[in-house]
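Researcher: Good morning. I'm working through a list of sequences from a screen, and I'd like to move beyond sequence-only analysis. For each chain I'm collecting a predicted structure so we can compare shapes side by side. This is the next one on the list. No need for commentary yet; just the structure.
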Amino acid sequence: MSKRLRNLLTPLIALLLGILVGTIIMVASGYDPVAAFTALWNGAFGGTYYVGEVIRQVTPYILSGLAVAFAFRVGLFNIGVEGQFIVGWFASVWVGISFDLPKAVLLPLAILASMAAGALWAFIPGLLKARFRVHEVIVTIMMNYIALHVTNYFIRSVVTNNKDRTPNIPDAASLRSPWLESITDYSRLHWGIVLALICLVIMWFFLEKTTRGFELRAVGFNQHAAHYAGMSVNKNIILSMVISGIFAGLAGAMEGLGTFGYVAVKGGFTGVGFDGIAVALLGGNTALGVFFAALLFGVLKVGALNMPLEAGVPNELVDIIIALIVFFVASSYIIRWALDRLNKKGVK
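Model: Good morning. C-alpha cells for this chain:
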C-alpha cells in the first residue's frame, strides 16, 4: 500500500469509526440512529435554504482550518485560532462602522483590518516562540482569553456606550449578497465563500510552489536541518504564525461582515477556532483536505439543528460524533499500524 493511499484512508476510517461509535451511543441512549441521521440529512440538504446555510457555515471553517493547518505544516500548534478569530471579527466590524467610505474602499479596508488583527494576535506567541522558546500552545491558550475579554471591554466601553453589541455595519462594509440569498431561499449565504476558496488556492500554491513555502515546510520537518542548510528558523516561525493569524482573522471577518453584520459581547468562546483544529486534523493539514473536512463539519453543524425537531435527538450528539472523529484522527497511528498489518498479510 502506497503512502499516499494510506494517508487518504486514515482520515476516512477515522470518520467512519466516529460515526459508528456515535451510532452505538445513540442506540445505547434509546434514540433511533436512522431517524437521527435522516433528520440531519434533511437539515443540511432538505432545501436550498439549508444548502445555503451549510455553505455559509463552511466558510469560517475553511479559514480556521487553514489557520491551524498552516501552523501545523511548520511544526507549530496554533491553539490560539479562536482568539485570532475573535479579534479579527471585532476589528472588521469596528472599521466598518467607523468610516463613511465607498464600498470599493471600506469593504477591503475592513477585511484588511481583520487580517491585521489576527496577524498581530498570532505574532506575539510567534515572537515568544522564536526568541525565547516559550511553547506556543501555552501562550496561544492565554491569548484566547485575553482576546475574549479585551474585545468585550472595547465593545462596551470604546465602540458603544455600555451596550452589549455594536450597531450594524453599513452596506458599504457588508459581504452580504442579495443574489446569493435569493437563489438559496434567503439564507445567510454571502460572498465570503469566494474569499475562503481563494485562500485555499493561496495556501496550496504558497506551500507547494514557492521557495518560501519550501523553507517553511523544511522548518516543520526538522528545525536543526533547516538551520544547518542556512534557513532562518526564527524568522520562519514568526512568519508562519503571522500567516496563520491572517487566515484566522479573516475567518472572523466572515462572521462580522457577512453572517451577522455586527459584533456582540460574548460570554464564552464561539468554538469556530477550536473546530478549526478538528478540520485541520481530519483534512491532513492540506488545502484540499481542509475543504472536504470543513464541508463535513458544516453539514454536521447545520444538519444537527434539525435533529431535535424531526427525530427528538439532542443535537449535542453531533458534537460527540465530532469529538470521536477527532479522537480517532489523533489515534491515527493505530489506524496506520492496522493498515500496514493488513497490507503485509495481503502481500503474503
